[in-house]
Amino acid sequence: MIFQTRGTCSSQISFEIEEGKLKNVQFSRGCSGNLQGISSLVEGMPIYEVISKLKGIDCQGRGTSCPDQLAIALESALKKQQAG
């Protein structure tokens, strides 16, 4: 899945969900080292756990952040799966 971010330095996030777990997370643009670290830390985690840990994280008063956008992307993916 590819998710277009809003309000962050990163412009999009791509990822896969396999058996309820997060795989192959990649951010486009943004703080490379931090985003590589986030991607590595969430690899293989259950998506509900990722959402719980990352949702609501704020970056510099923007009301969102790259981790928060990942949580939003995962929620969006879940809604699409449930509707489909």
Compact overview of the structure:
The chain is built from 3 helices and 3 strands.
Write the layout of secondary structure elements.
Elements: E1 2-4, E2 12-18, E3 21-28, H1 32-42, H2 47-54, H3 66-83
Antiparallel strand pairs: 1-2, 2-3
Helix pairs in contact: 2-3
Walk me through what this model shows.
It contains 3 helices and 3 strands; from the N terminus they run βββααα. It is α+β, with helices and mostly antiparallel strands. The chain has a single domain (2-83), classed as Sufe protein. Chain: A (Alpha-Beta Complex). β1 and β2 form a beta hairpin. The two termini are 14 Å apart. This is ribonucleoside-diphosphate reductase. It is an enzyme of class 1 (oxidoreductase). It catalyses: a 2'-deoxyribonucleoside 5'-diphosphate + [thioredoxin]-disulfide + H2O = a ribonucleoside 5'-diphosphate + [thioredoxin]-dithiol. Pfam families: TSCPD.
Based on the model shown, name its key terms.
single chain, 84 residues, alpha+beta, CHP03905, nucleotide binding, nucleotide-binding, TSCPD_dom
Number of domain units: 1
Number of strands: 3
Rg (C-alpha, Å): 12 Å
Proportion in β-strands: 15-25%
For the termini, the CA-CA separation is 14 Å
User: Structural class of the helices, strands and pairings?
Assistant: alpha+beta
Name the shape in a single word. Answer: globular
Q: How does the major sheet shape up?
A: 3 strands, antiparallel
GO molecular function, one term: ribonucleoside-diphosphate reductase activity, thioredoxin disulfide as acceptor
Enzyme class: oxidoreductase
Pfam families: TSCPD
Family: Belongs to the ribonucleoside diphosphate reductase class-2 family.
